[in-house]
Amino acid sequence: MTNKLYIVATPIGNLEDITLRALRILKKVDLIFAEDTRVAKKLLAHFGIGTPIAKRHTRDEQKAAEEIIVELEAGKNIALISDAGTPGISDPGAFIIQKVREWGKKVRPFVKIEAVPGPSALAAAISVAGISANEFLFLGFLPHKKGRETLFKEIAASERAVVFYESPHRILKTLESLKKFSPEKKITICRELTKIYEEVIGGTAVDLLEFFEKYPEKVRGEFVVIVSNK
Fold first, then answer.
1. Residue-number span of the structural domain to which 188 is assigned
2. Residues 78 and 138 in one domain
């Protein structure tokens, strides 16, 4: 019998966005490994799912990988989830999947890693931004300090649209950098996607800085920033 590690996407805000398949998988697996057990418990409780959650947070990817391999070796089916969206995309998961795949090839070739796709802040933002995005560069979360200025210079020079995530603590600083290096480029900011206060704002970096200065209460939530290539 083939046992599996399921990589399950979970809602980025609105819980109704979870897929029927994700709910079925989360109910049937033997154990769930989560980025944060507190967030996972709220999600499972909302849908009446009683599957046990591992105590190990996947933020410690080395230890989580070791424990997941032990459980797979014991014949269990495992689901891996992040707090929101898809594991491995600006969230813990990639290292775990790599280690499980390496182990599976050497020891248990009948262990399968299966994707259960679903919500993505990246896809959601592009879908409502109203920009041409046949091709784009995704940077995830920008570094806090080292290499930031170099990265903004690369964004300014990019011939493709550039998409990245930003926190409310750094969004204004990021806009200041975009004002310095990409003053003419159109920027689209998507905040609180799928939630009650979802909002899409567009303009130059100067326009957006003026907007947040006028509405400082909107400097909240998670942000997806899209810098146009034109």
1. 121-227
2. no
pLDDT digits (tens, 9 = 90+) for 162-191: 999 999 999 999 999 999 999 999 999 999
pTM of the prediction?
0.90
SS (H, E, C) 99-159: HHHHHHHHCCCCCEEEEECCCCHHHHHHHHHCCCCCCEEEEEECCCCCCHHHHHHHHHHCC
Number of domains in the chain: 2
Q: pLDDT tens across 183-216, in order?
A: 999 999 999 999 999 999 999 999 999 999 999 9
> What stretches of the chain show up as alpha helix (H) in DSSP?
20-28, 37-46, 61-73, 94-106, 121-129, 148-157, 171-181, 205-214
CATH number at residue 194: 3.30.950.10
